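[job 0417] fold request received: Semaphorin-4B-like
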Amino acid sequence: MTEEPRGAELLLISSTCSADRPLVHFSLPDVHNTTTLLLSNDSSTLYVGARDAVLSLDVSQSDVISLKNKSVMSPSLSLQVDCPNFVHVLEQINSTHLYTCGSFAFSPHDSFIVPSQFVLCASPQDTESRCPFSPFQRNTAITIDGELFTATTSDFRGVKPQISRHFTKQKRGDVSQDSSVNLLEEPTFVSSSWDPAERKLYFFFSEVGKEFSFVDELQISRVAQVCKDDVGGQRTLQRKWTSFAKAPLLCQSHRQLPFNVLQDVFTLQPAEGGDASDTLFYGVFTSQWSSGPESAVCVFRLQDVRTAFTGGYRTFDMQTHRWSPLLEKHSYLGKCGLDNASDSELAEVKKSFLTGSSVRPVSDGPVLVSSEQQYSRVAAMRTTAADGKQYTILYLLTESGFLHKVVLFDRGARVIEEIQVFTQPQLVKSLALSSTKGVLYVGTSEGVTAVPVSNCSTYRTCSQCVLARDPQCGWSPTRSVCTGLGRGSETIFMSDQLTQSNTDVCPAEVSVQLNEVVRLPCLKPSNMAALTWTSPQFEHLPEKLFIQSADGSLRFLAAAATFGTYHCEAEEGGYKEVVSGYTVRQAAPPRSMSPSPTVDGHVPDTKDESFEDIATEAPWVPEPSGDPEDREDTFTTSLKDETTFNVKDSDLKNHTEDHWTVTSRKDSHSWKEPGAVPPREKSYYSELVVVSLLLGLCICVLVLGGLHLWRQRKTELKVNPLVGADGTEVKVE
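[job 0417] inference complete; emitting structure tokens
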């Protein structure tokens, strides 16, 4: 058995809307409230109890829901408008007939249906205690060996609860509960289950707890038991349950108020070959003290339920109307086969039917707590992931019509997907899970919707597939898709620990240019391991295109034929393990740096783009292997000098020598593709001409300015002659 998680963490890590889900919806314009669902034993037919009708739907194909038959089950036309018939019970009573019961305008009616003809046959017997009068009251029903067991109300006002057995065989007579004592206090029944090992039935419900004295009425979640073959006592409790007992269900976080209102219970049978005592009950609880949407999920083990009913009991004082612990332990309380018990023993049974201890959850607390969602229905299934471990998946429905897919890990619960079942949110009523078909059917007031339990195609990359942490999905390296498990024996990449964000198992993305040398490193896990490279596009890697180096790395030339996925496998002692993986893709071509000429050969006058605005990126080079030489220099020689790259194709070698130049790592990597036009370098000719003209102009200005000053000085000498000391004019010869 898979150990249940001990955490109560709820974390939404991914969300997928219904647009990515292949949801199949079925509805009819004249049929509403399709809220009672029953799957046939082969899961090919879905029977639906609706308002004034019972439908038979063909669900043999996962992508189509079609109507097979329809039977009208409505009251008279005068009552049809205000009081229609709401079908509450729809069960397979035997191999040839279905049983159905509806409110029928507050006057319950039942019928038998032959599935092959789908014709209603009215039952002549009294239908009280088989289904409720009101269309708004919840009930539960289960058939065992052709006998019908129901938990509902038996009166018009809906205040008299009743757990009964109908269509009893072997002339034992139908059995109901004793009405002289209030065995149930305003219960709301949600589910029922069958324990074939002890031949007991369990009914899950919430009721008012009278064992506590509070100002406000306290709601208590409970489970009640009855024995299938109980026939009542001889004088006391004639045709009444002598095996009836009830026990509280405790769903409470540490130092918090309990979640005391039970909404739904799903019974998950043990794995094939497992012990029946390991049957689990997944219950959705809410709190009567919560002011907002809040809910929790608790898990209970069948063995713990059995233990509670074999332990101590409380007794009810008829005079004081109080409960008190029963000091003496009576072995017959909660036991089957009391038809020959004494009157004194049965008198004790009538007043001592409440267990002294509660049924505690498996993990001693909720496995999931949500402070933002109020869940109304739950379904559960087990699945085996690619890592070989078993996981439990819950499908929880909110009151607004959203479906949450939750995986229970050892470290807590994870919501891995959210699906909107309907565009217009509405109150969801019923769930039916087909584990064999992998489909969950949701019944609401407007129709039936089929939801696949997984949708692996939503995740388009290996990283998305692994990080989704969906145990039902895995990455297929041969097809490079995220696919469901169990579809062939191909290797599926999955994270060893689904609770960790580990994408090391995914192939690394490598983007390269055409004719670029690609080197894919691979490290040996041990010295004795032998490395082998494989690829889905090649049965065997051709030596003309690929070379495996001594250090285990794979080298090849990037071309259309060599783009794809490659895996390095290490084999030692007959055991193979994928060590590393790569997906080689063609990178986008670099952006041109020169404008393209127009039709008439004119180059548009556009602003030159600065080199800083052009984003440059160095070619991707994988991390080198453990060889020290590889760490120092990844590409240190040209292809002409590559000793390990012995390409036998002479054309490929000549083409490489003509058009490739691979320099040292210390220098920049450069190469020329054939026919490529080198980018135009930026010209400074116009700037040089302008500077030269300005320089010449400045020289001319300086020369003209000098001439002007010289002529001005000469003119001044003629106008003002030299005068001596005695006042006479001095002539200069």
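[job 0417] notes: Residues 1-18, 593-679 have pLDDT under 50 and may be disordered. The chain has seven helices and 40 strands.
[job 0417] exit 0
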